[in-house]
Specification:
The protein is 33% helix and 30% strand. The protein is α+β, with helices and mostly antiparallel strands. The protein has a single domain, classed as FAD/NAD(P)-binding domain. Strand 5 and strand 6 form a beta hairpin. Its EC number is 1.14.13.-. It comes from Marinobacter nauticus (strain ATCC 700491 / DSM 11845 / VT8) (Marinobacter aquaeolei). Belongs to the UbiH/COQ6 family.
């Protein structure tokens, strides 16, 4: 590697799910690197509770089976699984029409097709694991700027009201798409608005979910209900992702909880019985956001800072996680070959590999939105036939299952210990 003196090999801007996972993966798989995480929220071992008590209103993330394999590789899955609800069945349907398809984990020799885990629980598991590594933290602190220097970058960090600088071989921006840091550094984003919003809440139903995830396409947009709560007993709580246009969102938010349940019942139907309770509602606008060149010498974007997509099929965090592992793989290779991790050849190779995955995933999710958003009768009949065909054609069904489970892709780099699961909600 280059011999220029640096304060740290790698600075990660953002210690949320993406940044913390990257830090842990590097500690496990590229331990030679000195890693520093800059996080805006205060962190301390004393703040980590001994016992986790799930909240009804906890925000959650859908984890594909491929993501479970990654966390297992990082030695984190055993702990994560304590509060991760399995998805053993997936039911996809077109509201008001006959088209439907069903996926079952046992048909693929798996215990689950995916899982649903609270974001806070995932964060706690990551923090506990990171306490036993050499990763250092600057928190609460923020990255305010960066400029290239010989052999790497100089990063401006504000902490305790004062600014200081650290030199590193590479800066990874993992602070999501809303901090403004990527724009401050001159990265150009392209945003395509879907004209929709995602309303997120946890709901209770009179019938048990039986570990089934429902993806329901309606004339007003897709709606997902994911099993939530106990990882062992089929319960009555589900995580809702409800796609609504602006006026419809305003109308729903103005209603009482009982009225919200009634509206939800009208849209979803009775597959889970009666909706009996809806928790705190969160919402955000839906956009397809891309960055044409997310990698430059010494700096690279990951997770939502690099791309954001529609939450249909729960692809977002799983795509980000696969990208993180691809980046770790390239860092591992660079260290083995004596190349600086900030070289454009290293980061450009990551960009090339991850872009293939990103393009396939966006094509998959975006096509679902556009196909199921068409009200024309011939198109509606064709998509119904397609859903039925998925149930009848084993090859097509396996392809769809692989997309949902995130298990397609390249083999791991030989000898690296890093697996890339390169084929397939909020990662910050």
């Amino acid at each position: 590697m280059n011999t220029e003196r640096v304060d740290t090999d790698l600075i990660i801007a953002g210690g949320g799910l993406a940044g913390a996972t990257l830090a842990l993966a590097l500690a496990r798989l590229v331990p030679e690197l000195k890693v520093t995480v800059v996080e805006a929220f205060p962190l301390s071992p004393e703040a980590l509770p001994e016992d986790y008590q799930p909240s009804y209103d906890s925000r959650s993330t859908a984890l594909a089976w491929g993501s479970r394999l990654i966390f297992d590789q990082l030695g984190l899955w055993r702990q994560l699984s304590e509060h991760a609800t399995p998805i053993r069945h997936i039911h996809v349907s077109d509201r008001g029409r006959f088209g439907a398809t069903r996926l079952h984990a046992n048909e693929h020799g798996q215990d689950a097709l995916g899982y649903v885990a609270d974001n806070r629980w995932m964060g706690l598991c990551l923090m506990r694991a990171l306490l036993d590594t050499r990763v250092s933290w600057q928190a609460p602190a923020q990255v305010e700027g960066m400029k290239p220097v010989a052999g790497g970058v100089r990063v401006a960090i504000r902490k305790d009201g004062a600014q200081k600088e650290l030199t590193a071989r590479c800066l990874v921006i993992a602070d999501g798409g809303r901090s403004g840091l990527r724009e401050k550094l001159g990265f150009v984003t392209r945003t395509e608005a879907y004209g929709q919003n995602a309303l997120i809440a946890n709901v209770s139903t009179s019938d048990s979910h039986q570990f089934t995830a429902y993806e329901r396409f309606t004339e007003a947009g897709p709606m997902a209900l994911l099993p939530h709560g106990s990882p062992k007993r089929p319960g009555h709580q589900s995580a809702l992702v409800w796609t609504l246009e602006n006026e419809a969102l305003d109308e729903i938010l103005s209603l009482s909880d009982e009225q919200k349940c009634q509206k939800l019942q009208e849209r979803f139907g009775w597959r889970l019985g009666r909706f009996t309770h809806i928790g705190q509602c969160h919402h955000y606008p839906l956009n397809l956001t891309t960055v044409d060149e997310p990698a430059r010498p010494g700096v690279v974007l990951v997770g939502n800072a690099a791309h954001a997509l529609h939450p249909v099929a729960g692809q977002g965090f799983n795509l980000a996680l696969r990208g993180l592992m691809t980046l770790v793989e390239q860092f591992r290779r660079a260290v083995d070959e004596g190349i600086s991790i900030g070289e454009l050849s290293v980061l450009g190779r990551y960009q090339q590999l991850h872009r293939q995955d990103w393009q396939h995933t966006v094509q998959f999710s975006d096509s679902l939105i556009r196909i199921f958003g068409q009200p024309l009768a011939p198109i509606a009949a064709a998509r119904d036939a397609g859903l039925v065909g998925l149930d009848l054609l084993p090859g097509a069904k396996r392809w769809f299952a692989r997309k949902a489970m995130g298990t397609g892709g390249r083999k791991p780099l030989v000898g690296s210990g890093v697996s890339s699961f390169e084929a397939e909600k909020h990662d910050r």
